[in-house]
Design goal:
3 domains, two-stranded antiparallel sheet, globular, binds zinc ion
């Protein structure tokens, strides 16, 4: 057996074992409710967990506690079996409505959720009031007649599709979200000089204030930028990069040191592709 074959087998068996252990753990609240362990001659639910499923007392406790905590949230609870109690436990701490939390559990890795949860909780504890940045503001600008015509045409199409009138500001927003991040995604084409400057500026660390992780990825905050533009590129750690592509940053166009977490996922078309690719890569 080659090293690669051995490693592949380890990963395969490891992930299968994990999958079945999650399913086992998710059964424990029902076992406890029925006191099945007593009927079957075990000393306690802990004894049952350890001897039947190889699960430690701490984990049994956590699963039972989580089950109680989520008694009003059946959808999130159902994710314990699929995504594992540890990940759901993190999601359960995030102060968002259940559906949003379920979406996060399904799309983000555990470490990303942990980083995000900490930031959102910090923010709500500070009693942060949202800045006026997201309110609508009047903007005046000039357009050539051709572009104006195309914009109007797009507006009509959009209004037809959505069955209601849509102001031009929202039409533009829609267009920006449709536009591709361009060929610059992935970071490989960012000029070495710029990379070096960014590393220097952030001392090799993630650009997010308070994040101590090393920056190992470059992120284009202007995903709608034209090809070849490397404006707004910031170095991020893997977790914050995922957070950005989950649309979990309220004000991504601001300096990363001022970034605030958003309370629900709002990925655009490019972000969805990014998250999907990441999920597939992780499943390999
Ligand atoms: Zn990115
Ligand atoms: Zn980070």
């Amino acid at each position: 057996m080659t090293d690669k074959e051995l490693f592949d087998l380890c990963r395969k068996y490891g992930s299968e074992a994990l999958k079945w252990r999650r399913k086992f753990a998710a059964l424990l609240p029902e076992v406890e409710k029925r006191k099945l362990w007593r009927k079957k001659g075990f000393y306690s639910i802990y004894d049952f967990g350890k001897r039947v499923g190889g699960i430690s007392e701490i984990v049994v406790d956590k699963v039972l506690f989580l089950d109680k905590k989520l008694s009003e949230k059946p959808l999130l609870k159902a994710e314990i079996e699929k995504q594992g109690w540890a990940k759901v436990e993190v999601a359960a701490r995030i102060p968002v409505e259940e559906g949003k939390a379920v979406e996060m559990v399904q799309s983000l890795s555990k470490s990303t959720l942990q980083v995000y949860a900490k930031e959102v909780i910090d923010m709500s504890e500070k009693g942060f009031k949202q800045k006026a940045g997201s309110e609508l503001q009047p903007v005046t600008f000039k357009l050539d007649s051709q572009t104006h015509f195309q914009l109007k045409k797009f507006q009509q199409k959009l209004e037809k599709k959505k069955g209601r009138s849509i102001p031009l500001g929202l039409v533009l927003k829609e267009l920006l979200e449709l536009a591709p991040e361009g060929k610059i995604q992935g970071g490989s084409r960012i000029p070495v000089k710029q990379k070096r400057e960014l590393y220097g500026k952030y001392k090799g660390k993630c650009a997010i204030k308070d994040c101590k992780n090393p920056a190992n990825e470059f992120h284009h905050t202007k995903r709608f930028a034209k090809d070849g533009t490397h404006e707004g590129v910031v170095p991020l750690c893997h977790e914050h990069h995922q957070i950005a592509h989950a649309g979990l940053i309220e004000n991504e166009q601001d300096d990363p040191k001022d970034w605030r977490p958003r309370k629900y996922m709002k990925p655009n078309a490019i972000d969805r592709k990014y998250l999907k690719n990441l999920k597939m890569a992780n499943a390999l």
